[in-house]
Amino acid sequence: MKTTRNQNQGAAAVEITVNGRPVTATAGTTVGAALMSEGVHSWRRTRHEGRPRGLFCGIGVCFDCLVEVDGHPNQRACLVTVREGMAIEGAMADTDDPNRAERATDGVLGTHGGEPHDRDSI
């Protein structure tokens, strides 16, 4: 495991990938915090109107920050702690793959981004 010291905060740094791109993150932070520190403020779009979504509540209640982590969809970026070698997908709203965010949130029930599901489909 490659571990270095983050010169700005004195914390260990880990290498992760975000949509296949290598990113250095501070150990012990959440995926959401790592994305925000990289300047990524939204990483999925709502299904019906295409509105950008990212961190909203920051405590795991709202489902706005869903990403795919190591092949597991529907992970809340605000709750998952980064670790060495972690692969995050669906983490950029402006991507050439418009289905990436939808794959990261497939199968989630409830209200997401102000867009309630049709009651008949539940």
Automatic annotation (TrEMBL):
Residues 91-122 are annotated as: Disordered. This is (2Fe-2S)-binding protein. The keyword Oxidoreductase applies. The keyword Oxidoreductase applies. Keywords: Oxidoreductase. It comes from Citricoccus nitrophenolicus.
